[in-house]
Design goal:
Layout (H helix, E strand, L loop, with lengths): L1 E6 L7 H17 L4 E3 L19 H14 L6 E8 L7 E9 L2 E7 L24 E3 L2 E7 L18 H7 L4 E6 L7 H16 L2 E6 L1 E4 L2 E4 L3 E3 L5 E4 L6 E6 L12 H20 L4 E4 L4 H14 L4 E5 L7 H14 L2 E4 L3 H9 L12 H22 L2 E4 L3 H6 L12 E2 L6 H11 L8 H5 L19 H13 L4 H5 L5 H13 L1 H5 L27
Helix pairs in contact: 1-2, 5-6, 5-11, 6-7, 6-11, 8-9
């Protein structure tokens, strides 16, 4: 059978726009002889709509859009993700898929497995399906599932569900499983999905058409990578990563090889898509960011220039007497290489004036992080002034390693509307920089080679305060992403005092992260949507 995949980029709440995208894809895929057309999960509303679902007119608008879409369909069935009402006990809504054909809604299917781990909280809104049943489409018995319904125990963080919707549908005679998905990207996720779908297809001896959305909504990026898997577990079709596509796959086609991008390439494109969609969907056209001459701001500038076009990015260097000449030159060279706008706004005099206000108050007290933090806060104020006057969104440039241990200044370098690389560990920032420079030098080599420094006092280096990133980042991954205790991490061979210092810093800086700009999620557990920790507590892991 020929399956048409509408791998689209929905915008949350834009029912008219999403309906238009679906209809355009439907006509294109019908013209390519698709026997069935399938869309992503909640394609009509965008995913995840969160508490917009509680707005009194949100669900009615989505239902009206569904009726309008149904009226445009012909003999080829269109399977669309949407939100339906639930009139029994329990939650008032269903995560649903409708089959539209010949101008009508001919079938409705509801999601069975509602994830409540990581970034997901579907049980807050939806009531699960009590049973599953096959639908006759183009003369074949088809099982329609929604995202989590197809995920199986070996590929989940832990066993969550006692039932298997796919197994039940195959037992009823389904020869094809459609899966409407909104599966967020994390590093390594495309390969994981292929492995999972291949296992399910092979186990149940059934073909699987998996249609994932692309695009970014707030902190989540959806990478597409839709797949058609044969009953033998081998792929027949793979749609591209990080862009919309309409493609038809044939379950009877010969198997094909799939090559996913290398990790730095996928990470780069995920961050570019995250920036582009965040600004466009929020109504911004341009961005401003500070350029320190360091690797974090350099990588962020490269991502912004790719996402928005260099003409829509302003880089600003804001030196003080502690800023090295090399850092200023590296910032200017980077801006020239990228073709972005560039400003040099020294803050040395402002820093002196600001310190002078406290001459009597701080008399007899030694300089410390108080004076250091004045500088990034003046830089934050400078960037916000440019934002207000010129209409740019401020991009903050801190990485996950710094955010984890609080090596960042609240209301200073944390200032911004989007934290582009806040889920990228420092060692991966270096990998990204080398990938960006794979063909020619975009980021000045000196930026990559020199020891990282905040340059807030003479001869400052990150490693004066922090453990080497080669030690810091693996410990943070074990603690934040794998949620291991202090003793469990030490048991893996790390120095006990270092582990305890890092974990204590993570706990102490929860209040900072609570006030940080939203960041783009690219790891299995990011600070933000998927990690909910109390600020005031006395628990020691």
């Amino acid at each position: 059978m020929k399956i048409g995949f509408a791998q689209i980029n929905p915008t949350i709440g834009d029912m008219a726009g999403n309906r238009g995208k679906i209809l355009e894809s439907y006509h294109a895929l019908v013209a390519q002889a698709a026997a069935i057309v399938v869309t992503p999960e909640l394609a009509l509303t965008g995913y995840p709509p969160l508490d917009l679902l509680f707005e009194s007119d949100f669900v009615p608008r989505n239902l009206a859009a569904l009726e309008d879409l149904a009226a445009t369909t012909g003999s080829v069935p269109l399977v669309v993700g949407y939100v339906d009402r639930h009139h029994g006990t329990g939650n008032p809504l269903r995560n649903a898929a409708a089959v539209l054909q010949n101008g009508k809604i001919v079938a409705r299917v509801f999601k069975s497995l509602l994830p409540t781990y990581d970034v997901f909280d579907e049980a807050r809104y939806f009531e699960p399906a009590e049973t599953v049943s096959i639908v006759e489409l183009s003369g074949s018995p088809v099982g329609i599932t929604l995202c989590e319904d197809i995920w199986t125990e070996p590929h989940l963080p832990r066993p969550y569900y006692p039932n298997s919707p796919v197994g039940d549908l195959v037992a009823q005679g389904a020869t094809l499983i459609l899966n409407l998905s909104a599966s967020p990207f994390t590093m390594g996720k495309p390969q994981q999905r292929l492995s999972m779908l291949s296992d399910v297809a092979r186990k149940h001896k059934v073909a699987i058409a998996y249609c994932n959305c692309i695009g970014a909504n707030d902190q989540l990026v959806f990478d597409g990578n839709s797949l058609l898997i044969g009953a033998d577990g081998l792929p027949r079709l793979a749609l591209p990563s990080f862009r919309e596509a309409n493609s038809v796959g044939d379950t009877n086609a010969p198997p094909r090889q799939i090559a996913f991008g290398e990790s730095s390439e996928d990470l780069y494109h995920a961050l570019v898509l995250g920036v582009r969609d965040y600004l466009q969907k929020c109504g911004f056209r341009s961005a401003v960011l500070g350029l320190s001459g360091g690797i974090d701001s350099a990588v962020t500038a490269c991502i912004a220039a790719e996402a928005l076009g260099p003409e829509n990015v302003l880089g600003v260097t804001m030196p003080t007497l502690y800023s090295s000449e090399g850092s200023i030159n590296d910032s200017e060279s980077l801006a020239k290489n990228l073709g972005i706008h560039f400003l040099n706004i020294p803050i040395g005099r402002a820093f002196e004036v600001f310190q002078a206000q406290f001459t009597d108050i701080f008399k007899g007290l030694a300089p410390n992080e108080t004076e250091e933090n004045m500088q990034p806060r003046l830089r934050g104020m400078t960037l916000m002034a440019l934002s207000n006057k010129l209409g740019h969104l401020v991009l903050s440039t801190g990485n996950k390693s710094e955010l984890a241990v609080g090596y960042c200044t609240l209301y200073g370098d944390m200032c911004g509307g989007l934290a582009v690389i806040s889920d990228v560990p420092k060692i991966d920032i270096y990998k990204l920089a080398r990938w960006i420079n794979r063909e020619n030098e975009v980021i000045p080599q000196n930026t990559i080679d020199k020891p990282p420094s905040a340059e807030l006092k003479p001869d400052q280096r990150d490693q004066d305060t922090l453990p080497p990133y080669e030690i810091l980042d693996p410990i943070l991954r074990l603690y934040v992403e794998e949620q291991l205790s202090c003793e469990d991490i030490i048991a893996k061979g790390f120095e006990p005092e270092t582990v305890r210092w890092i974990l204590r810093r993570v706990r102490l800086n929860e209040y900072k992260r609570a006030q940080a700009a939203p960041g783009i999620k690219v790891t299995t557990r990011a600070f933000g949507l998927g990690r909910r920790m109390p600020i005031a507590h006395r628990y020691t892991p």
